[in-house]
Amino acid sequence: MERQLDYVLRTVEERGVRFVRLWFTDVVGSLKSFAITPAELEVALEEGMTFDGSAIEGYTRVQESDMLALPDPNTFEIVPWRGDDAPAARIFCDIQHLDGEPFDGDPRFVLKRNLERAREKGFTFYAGPEMEFYYFESAENPVPLDRASYFDLTQLDMVSELRKQTIITLEAMGIPVEYSFHELGPSQHEIDLRYTDALTMADNVMTFRLVVKEVAQDLGVYATFMPKPIPDAFGSGMHTHLSLFEGDVNAFHDPGDEHGLSKVGKCFIAGLLRHASEITAVTNQWVNSYKRLGMAQVPGGPAPIVGYEAPVYVCWARNNRSALVRVPIAKKGKESSTRIEFRSPDPACNPYLAFSVMLAAGLKGVEEGYELPPEATNNIFEMTPEERAAEGIGALPSSLADAVDRLERSELVAEALGEHVFEHFIRNKRREWVEYKAQVTPWELDRYLGSL
Question: What are phi and psi of 188, to 5 degrees?
Fold first, then answer.
């Protein structure tokens, strides 16, 4: 740690950094920041910086507002989009009380606590998300930049430059990229981040979302991680690849198993499936999230009618993308890279909380020895509700209200998030649902105003 502190201070001096931005995250996943000068940095690294926690969503009350933001020197990076005239850097912070105790409402601490629980069992938790998003002309004019589709090579110079500059910026900040390509929707894109430990990845997701927006803004367009920004197009997901390691050994891999899955891997999947509905309010936390998930569920008939392949049916499979949990088939010679893909989360979630509940659900399956149900072999979207029921295949919640109801009854999520975050999250989401229900939408005006 001392060596890393020295590196940070030396780099700030050598690079002529003018401002250091301290980053942290509120309960719903919004990135917060305040800047300090290099003269304050050494004190900040040793003692933390005081700020008003009562102004942050889900933090403290006015009468107990003072908190500390303690920079984590391992997250120090130069910010490449601020220019050479006034170089800036950023550091993620851990939030503490004034006495130095960790703050229970800090999402980064919530994830650290869950990762420590996994470490006590000998596991390190890794994550690799596939980040989908849309480019529009502007936030006020959400018109796609192209009409291309999956893997299309677009001829629009703007689109190529957007992805290229985004990847260059990400890698300049120490965030390696595995793939990038055009997704199914018009002007929808995907950039897959190379897997790493879950805490680093949560920090990377927060950085990624800002980088995508910053690069888009610099090139005169708007990027959004809204799960369903266009009614008649595919929604944006954050399919997340997960694995547990015991030291350098992949705990999900068993070369003697027909699926290459160890008992730990099978139990982890079973835990995700059993608790999927309880954790959905965290992995898909907005009203709009259910315009992506809920549209695939059409009562009384086959689905999807307008579902766009949203992964809502609670089952697992290998080479079957209609399942909620997928076990990708490893490439020849790479069999030990066994992992699972959890397909329901969207890119607007709070990654610290989302990774926490995914890990908690999987670990519960490992601890309790949950039995893995049979693999789904049919296209789940083409099955009728009766056929799915006969196979024991349920569905995720279809609205935020339903998801919060299921979360509120979950002992697993309450323990994973901790009392402070759990209670605030429920209050915040109940309020969002009430505000949404009070709206009179353009759809209602178009349908009813001229005839009723």
Answer: -100, 135
**Alpha helix positions (H), 333-410:** 351-368, 385-390, 400-408
- Which tokens hold the place of 278? 């309880």
Integer Cα distance of 95 and 283 in angstroms: 23
Structure token digits, residue 281 = 């309010």
Rounded CA-CA distance 252/263 in Å is 7
Please write the tens of the pLDDT for every residue from 332-343: 666 668 999 999
Residue 344 to residue 351: CA distance in whole angstroms: 13
Domains and CATH numbers, the chain: 2-102 (3.10.20.70), 112-446 (3.30.590.10)
> Which residue has better confidence, 22 or 181?
22
Structure pTM?
Answer: 0.94
Q: Quick one: 179 exposed, middle or buried, by C-beta within 10 A (0-12, 13-18, 19+)?
A: exposed
Q: Are strands 49-52 and 31-36 parallel, antiparallel or unpaired?
A: unpaired
- Do the Cβ atoms of 238 and 226 come closer than 8 Å? no
DSSP 337: G
The Cα 441–Cα 447 span in angstroms is 10
**Cβ(118)–Cβ(125) below 8 Å:** yes
Q: Specify the DSSP element, H or E, that contains 96.
A: strand 88-96
51-87: pLDDT as tens digits = 888 777 767 654 457 889 999 999 999 998 766 678 8
Measured in whole angstroms, the distance separating CA 93 from the mean position of its chain's CA atoms is 19
Cross-strand pairs, 314: 394
Contact residues for 8 (Cβ-Cβ < 8 A; gap 6+): 41, 45, 73, 76, 91
HEC string of 19-85 equals EEEEEEECCCCCEEEEEECHHHHHHHHHHCEEEEHHHCCCCCCHHHCEEEEEECHHHCEEECCCCCC
